[in-house]
Every structure is written in C-alpha cells, then in structure tokens.
Amino acid sequence: MKFHYPNGRKYTPKDSEKKPSIKIEKKFSYSNRGMTLEEDLNETNEYYLQREIAVIHKKPTPVQIVQVDYPKRSAAVIKEAYFKQASTTDYNGIYKGKYIDFEAKETQNSSSFPLKNFHEHQIRHMRAVLSQGGICFVILRFTSENELYWLEAKHLMVFWERMNSGGRKSITKEEIQTAGHSIPLGFHPRIDYIKVIDKLYDL
Fold first, then answer.
1. DSSP label at 105?
2. Phi/psi at 8 (nearest 5 deg)?
3. What pLDDT band is residue 71 in, cutting at 50, 70 and 90?
C-alpha cells in the first residue's frame, strides 16, 4: 500500500518507524510476552478506563484513502492513501482533571535511545503541551532487555537541544535512568505509568 504526505511526497518508512497498515486487533493474553509497546499500552489504558482511573486513548492517524481495490465482493484492499497531516504524539486523555499527553517509542539498542525516533513536529507539540500546563512525557522501551522508562518531556527537550547543538544523537541508558523512572512490566495493568504521575505530581 502506498502512502503520500499532504505535499504529494511519497512516504518512505524509516527503520525506526512502522509501516502504516490496517490490522485486526488480537485478543489479549497475559501469557503473550512478545506484545508490542502499543499493545501493552492499549491494554493498560483499557484497564484504567474500565476501573474509572483515567481516560487515555491512542490518537487515530489522519489518513485520506484515494485508491481501493475490491478483489472480492466481501473484501476491500486499500492500495494508496495520504497522511492528511503530520501526527503529533501517540496518546492523550485526562487523569484527575489534568490533561495527559505522551509518546511511546521502542528501540533494539541496549545502551542508548536514538533521538531520530522522534520528529521535530512531535517535539514542537510536546513543548506546546508543556506551555499550557499539561503533563507530557515519553515511554521508552529497550526491547532487547524489555526495560521500560518514563521520561518527562522537559528532559527530552534538553537532549534534543543537545543534539541540535552538535552533541550526541542519542540518549544514553544511564541518562534515562537518572532523569527518568523505571516502570516494571506488570500483570494488571501491564504498564502502570499512572503510578509515576502520582509520585511526581500533586493531583
């Protein structure tokens, strides 16, 4: 399936990005240790929602479909589509009356997190959320060790500016461990990031 940006330029996914696709949601099983970060977070957010803890949802990606094939009367295959606009962050919602906004990223690296996984428009969006008093952060997963970290967006901005000033193009794991907070992978919920918010904010 071909995707294009609003300016007509063809979309070419980078190694750190997932190719956009239509997928069928899988039934969750706690025995599935190979779940993606997105799947784990979606299950966590459903847990929060059902127990009236918080209302957090994954933002839909705005896509304009321009070509569809119908190989069967009962099936349709999207052949070409355009991103209507650049996406911002992955998740947003509300918790105890406070606006929550965050991005989730994974890396196969074991010692550092590449900043190329983020985009300038995402950084601008996070700055805007912070300027309005929202709670904004990123959840980072080192997939080789299955380690999870919660990092405030204000710290991400420091590392981003360092890169733009000619510094290193990644955040070391030691820096993430110092500035961020480890999140243990749990059972119910899978990624209890609300615990970190409770620890850091007086809500």
1. E
2. 95, -15
3. confident
d(CA 120, CA 127): 11
Helix (H, G, I), strand (E, B) or coil at 55: strand
Q: Which of 190, 186, 202, 166 is nearest to 48 (CA)?
A: 190
Beta pairing class for 147-152 and 181-182: antiparallel
Count the Cβ atoms, other than its own, within 10 Å of residue 44: 21
- What gap in Å lies between CA 34 and CA 174, rounded to an integer? 25
Domain boundaries along the sequence of the chain? 35-60+86-200
- Total-model pTM: 0.73
Instruction: Report how far residue 45's alpha carbon sits from residue 58's, in angstroms, rounded to the nearest whole number.
Output: 9
How far apart, in Å, do the first and last CA atoms of the chain sit? Answer: 45
Give CA–CA dist 59/148, Å, rounded: 21
C-alpha–C-alpha distance, residues 18 and 109, integer Å: 16
CATH class of 35-60+86-200: alpha beta
CA distances from 195 to 5, 95, 123, 150, 177 (A): 38, 12, 24, 10, 17
